[in-house]
Amino acid sequence: MGSLKDELLKAIWHAFTALDQDHSGKVSKSQLKVLSHNLCTVLKVPHDPVALEEHFRDDDEGPVSNQGYMPYLNRFILEKVQDNFDKIEFNRMCWTLCVKKNLTKNPLLITEEDAFKVWVIFNFLSEDKYPLIIVSEEIEYLLKKLTEAMGGGWQQEQFEHYKINFDDSKNGLSAWELIELIGNGQFSKGMDRQTVSMAINEVFNELILDVLKQGYMMKKGHRRKNWTERWFVLKPNIISYYVSEDLKDKKGDILLDENCCVESLPDKDGKKCLFLVKCFDKTFEISASDKKKKQEWIQAIHSTIHLLKLGSPPPHKEARQRRKELRKKQLAEQEELERQMKELQVANESKQQELEAVRKKLEEAASRAAEEEKKRLQTQVELQARFSTELEREKLIRQQMEEQVAQKSSELEQYLQRVRELEDMYLKLQEALEDERQARQDEETVRKLQARLLEEESSKRAELEKWHLEQQQAIQTTEAEKQELENQRVLKEQALQEAMEQLEQLELERKQALEQYEEVKKKLEMATHKTKSWKDKVAHHEGLIRLIEPGSKNPHLITNWGPAAFTEAELEEREKNWKEKKTTE
């Protein structure tokens, strides 16, 4: 009952403010009599004109305020209202009183009937405080519903831009500003008047008339058992069916309660997509147009029965209540935050005052400390003069001791540095000897590879010369054997070509081996140079270690194809000389 009273008060508030011509919050008694009579008529409440006169008997001269009319409105009208009146007729009566005064004169894309429906939707979605406004969250919810009903896509960025340009001095829109917003087509660009009107009507049916679902289906009669097309309208506790969608010729109702149920039926008697609605005293067989529609209707009726069992309101009303509770919670949290901020500010000011008092105390303490410091410095000067002689004597003794310690430390450091240098020299000498040994091994490997390549090259050249001589002899044979020899010559030329390619490959390998030999030679020279330099260093440090020197190098033999490798005799001679030098050292 409280919720119904709040809904009625919103529409009555519009009518009352429309009668308030000079915006003073007061309406004449004659106008209130007319308003009260009209309200009693549409709300089906017995009208008592004497009660109005009695209520204002002490104030029958001039206008009365809204606060003075509210007690009468609550006592003699709203408390007597039952849920048996036509809500649309009630809203239309209040709309008639306020539309001419408030509706914008600018041309709109919607009709006055559509504007009336938007006005009723505004009363449903507005906040429960006066003057009535609809907050941005509810505006977004309504515009989304309209866009969805028009089959368009919701433009979130456009709405965010609209919210940025919102007047900061108010928290929402009035009913007439909302009508103008929807009527100017700002959020329905590209849609014609009929589409917008149909969308408003669909949202109106859902939010105001509690229409959960509607559409054409076939219904089987109870007496004649014939099938007739009807327009079905599903509401929270009833399914009404009409001849057509204009709702003028109502044919019957299916009363829903928690004991009802809905079941799917198999196809029969030439009818498809059948389902059954079972109630306490009757059963209704219905045929949908397709399987999708059938499933949607079964699901909608089942959800409605489930809500009846739970005693829950329709989904859109429950969602509206949740949104309001969420906003109240957010407002309470914001107020709590502001209260905490104020407390913190007060606490901060108190702390500032305490800090100021502490600062003054610290300044006084600093002043006293300065005086004490002055006295202490004076005493310190006297003590410094007394002990200056003793301090000079102690400094002289300490200086002598430091010089002795420094001398000993220097000697020890020199000794340790010499030991570290010898150790480093020994390690580097070992690395140099290892490099020399590795270089000799690389030189021996390259020399053997070069000798093998030269032998292969010589054999290939001898074979090539032999083939060439055989070819010359074959050319000088008789003319009768010329054809046969020509064939042999072609074969030998092919073999010669292959031999030339092998020779080129051997030449390339020989060059690579020569390059490797040069690299090994450079490494050996570098190792020899390192060995000689380290030998000089060791000799400089009292000759603790003797370096192993490499043997002398003889000039290389040169062939027509480049430097030749060492022979076995030369290698043995070099090894013998190296061993002799090592023995003498």
Shape, per Cα inertia axes: flat
> Strand-and-helix sequence, N→C?
HEHHEHHHEHHEHHEEEEEEEHHHEEH
Mean pLDDT: 83
Largest sheet geometry: 7 strands, antiparallel
Radius of gyration: 57 Å
Uncertain runs with pLDDT below 50, 5 residues or more? Answer: 542-549
Q: What fraction, in percent, of the residue positions are helical?
A: 55-70%
User: What structural category characterises the helix and strand content?
Assistant: alpha+beta
DSSP strand content: 5-15%
- Counting DSSP E segments of at least 2 residues, the number of strands comes to 13
Task: Please list the strands of the largest sheet in the order they lie side by side.
Answer: 8-7-6-5-11-10-9
Number of helices: 14
Terminal Cα separation, in Å?
Answer: 124 Å
Domain EF-hand: 7-42
Organism: Papio anubis (Olive baboon)
GO biological process, one term: actin filament bundle assembly
Protein name: Switch-associated protein 70
Describe what this molecule looks like in 3D.
It is a single chain. With 585 residues, this protein is α+β, with helices and mostly antiparallel strands. Among the domains are: 1-209, no CATH class; 213-311, Roll (PH-domain like), CATH 2.30.29. The protein is 66% helix and 9% strand. It is built from 14 helices and 13 strands. It has a seven-stranded antiparallel beta sheet with strand order 8-7-6-5-11-10-9, with helices on one face. Strands 1-2 form a two-stranded antiparallel ribbon. Strand 5 and strand 6 (227-235) form a beta hairpin. Helix 12 packs across helix 13 (482-540). The chain is flat, with a radius of gyration of 57 Å. Mean pLDDT is 83; it is low at 542-549. It is found in: Cell membrane; Cell projection, Lamellipodium; Cytoplasm; Nucleus.
